[in-house]
User: Which sequence fits this backbone?
């Protein structure tokens, strides 16, 4: 008996609001407003931290139903790309925690029933038990503030719905704005809504009046681009509003509706329609990049219902198919394309010191994923493997999705430097690369000898010291706070070992004219292990260029900014002195606080120094 595969259907995100999804699926059913209540979104907004990358205006209006709240992780760069507000400049002030607040105002003041806060980040970190708090204040139409209380933020309870309890012994007030005061800068807000009751009259509850029972009727409905059917025809209480073909319902006030709904029933409650709706022309918006990859779109007639856009393929992609036209459909989506852009690679590049092996790689028109293989010439190996064992002789290049070939090259094998005692006595035709010839130039030309770098990375033979050179080096002078230990003597080939007189210092090689006092923080000097007496009867490296600088403390990357380590020689303390390279985004000084240069963010690669990094990249000496 043949097995039949199981079929599963995922209701979440299918665009259809099932009965069991109401109240739980924002994506399919929109934002739920309980019967008898009205929700309105923030109309204006301001915040404690304003920046072009994260303006407070992002919380205005209804949030996108696809946005999700995140815990355990906070990335300022992701927030910038997110439709949410956060105090994204707070991390630049690393020495104190400024107050963080967000104030939103609403177009129609009303007696608040609830305040609803939609979060993008709740500010919680790995292993942290303490949750961040928000303190909520209601602002009435007279400017007076009313404290609601403090509440925990959690993605598990998003949105945060705070119900408002009114004091019945005092007159009711109408809320026009809400201020949110946060206990942490590591939070992000998507939207804020004010919920009011449709059956609540602030005027009636602040005074007494004698009235006769009467039926309150609603004003006649007037919705452009729609047909309206009411029952009964006279003194109607319920009306159906159906948008004309090509238009979609938009809720201006009241309970939200699923996207692209064309019809809705309105009810008259206490003289007010439970929703205010309008019919807007369907707008598909610009076609997304994913609709046709490697294409550019042109929509000169707009992007509304039945309008068309055309697309053209970006070089080197080629159009495959006949029609390059898209149509905006009734569901707000663009029609499926009847053509696509195929990316092909041109002929593979010519690689220096290598031979193309695969015959079909000659010429152009290669599909993405095509592999072309090269063999490196003798003495050459695939770059990045030259100094490895085993070295690779065959280079593989792949045609990438962008229509370009993967980069690669063949580099010559390199032989090791001749022993230090021959420094300054030889010349080479091509450094120490394959096939180079190095000639030892002795005082007696009859003793000159040459060696060649073979394809296996070894010299054909070893240099032999010139026989007619006699004498030894003078003892190295103890300059620049450096002393030398010369247990091997001062003969040619003997080594002396430098040691710094000052404790916790390293002997390093500096350029002529430089000293430990003038050394810039972005320079990385080489640490000197020994100096050798050469056949020129000189010490190499030159002891006059060896200075002592302070050693690095073994605490890089521990979360504390050690000023001693805040330099390129110590890898800028493992990123501890820049907010952007710390997971907490807050610099903590080790020891007393300071405002000197060595306490600032110096790392040229850090986000704070992007503009100056080009001139201060670490330089090895």
Assistant:
């Amino acid at each position: 008996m043949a097995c039949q595969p199981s079929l599963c259907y995922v209701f979440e995100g299918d665009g259809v609001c099932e009965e069991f999804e109401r109240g739980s699926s924002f994506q399919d059913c929109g934002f739920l407003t309980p019967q008898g209540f009205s929700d309105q979104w923030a109309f204006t907004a301001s915040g404690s931290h304003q920046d072009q990358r994260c303006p407070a205006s992002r919380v205005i209006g209804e949030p996108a139903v696809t946005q999700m709240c995140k815990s355990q992780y906070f990335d300022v760069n992701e927030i910038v790309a997110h439709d949410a507000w956060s105090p994204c400049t707070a991390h630049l002030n690393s020495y104190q925690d400024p107050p963080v607040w967000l104030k939103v105002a609403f177009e129609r003041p009303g007696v608040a029933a609830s305040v609803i806060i939609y979060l993008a980040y709740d500010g919680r970190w790995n292993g942290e038990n303490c949750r961040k708090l928000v303190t909520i204040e209601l602002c009435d139409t007279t400017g007076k503030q009313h404290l609601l209380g403090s509440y925990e933020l959690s993605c598990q309870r998003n949105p945060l719905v705070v119900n408002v309890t009114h004091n019945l012994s005092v007159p009711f007030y109408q809320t026009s704005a809400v201020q949110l005061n946060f206990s942490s800068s590591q939070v992000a807000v998507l939207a804020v809504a004010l919920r009011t009751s449709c059956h609540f009259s602030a005027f009636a509850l602040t005074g007494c009046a004698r009235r006769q029972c009467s039926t309150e009727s609603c004003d006649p409905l007037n919705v452009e681009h729609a047909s309206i059917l009411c029952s009964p025809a006279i003194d109607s209480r319920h009306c159906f509003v159906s948008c004309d073909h090509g238009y979609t319902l938009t809720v201006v006030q009241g309970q939200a509706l699923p996207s692209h709904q064309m019809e809705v029933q309105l009810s008259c409650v206490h003289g007010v329609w439970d929703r205010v709706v309008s019919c807007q022309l369907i707008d598909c918006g610009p076609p997304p990049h994913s609709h046709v990859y490697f294409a550019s779109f042109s929509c000169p007639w707009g992007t509304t219902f039945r309008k068309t856009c055309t697309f053209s393929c970006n070089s080197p992609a080629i159009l495959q198919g006949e029609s390059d036209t898209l149509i905006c459909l009734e569901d707000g989506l663009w029609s499926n394309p009847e053509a696509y852009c195929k990316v092909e690679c041109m002929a593979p590049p010519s690689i220096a010191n290598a031979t193309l092996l695969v015959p079909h790689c000659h010429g152009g028109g290669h599909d993405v994923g095509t592999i072309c293989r090269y063999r490196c010439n003798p003495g050459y190996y695939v770059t990045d493997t030259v100094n490895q064992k085993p070295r690779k002789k065959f280079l593989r290049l792949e045609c990438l999705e962008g229509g370009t070939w993967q980069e690669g090259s063949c580099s010559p094998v390199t032989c090791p430097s001749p022993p230090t005692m021959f420094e300054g006595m030889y010349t080479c035709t091509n450094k120490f690369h394959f096939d180079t010839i190095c000639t030892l130039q002795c005082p007696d030309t009859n003793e000159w000898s040459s060696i060649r770098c073979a394809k296996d990375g070894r010299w054909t033979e070893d240099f032999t010291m010139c026989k007619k050179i006699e004498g030894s080096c003078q003892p190295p002078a103890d300059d620049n706070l450096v002393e030398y230990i010369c247990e091997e003597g001062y003969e040619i080939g003997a080594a002396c070992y430098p040691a710094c007189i000052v404790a916790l210092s390293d002997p390093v090689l500096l350029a002529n004219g430089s000293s430990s006092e003038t050394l810039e923080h972005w320079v990385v000097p080489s640490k000197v292990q020994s100096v050798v007496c050469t056949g020129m009867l000189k010490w190499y490296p030159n002891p006059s260029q060896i200075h002592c600088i302070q050693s690095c403390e073994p605490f890089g990357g521990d979360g504390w900014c050690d000023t001693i380590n805040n330099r390129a020689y110590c890898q800028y303390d493992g990123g501890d002195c820049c907010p952007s390279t710390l997971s907490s985004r807050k610099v903590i000084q080790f020891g007393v606080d300071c405002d000197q240069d060595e306490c600032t963010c110096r790392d040229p690669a850090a986000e704070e120094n992007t503009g100056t990094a080009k001139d201060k990249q670490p330089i090895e000496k």
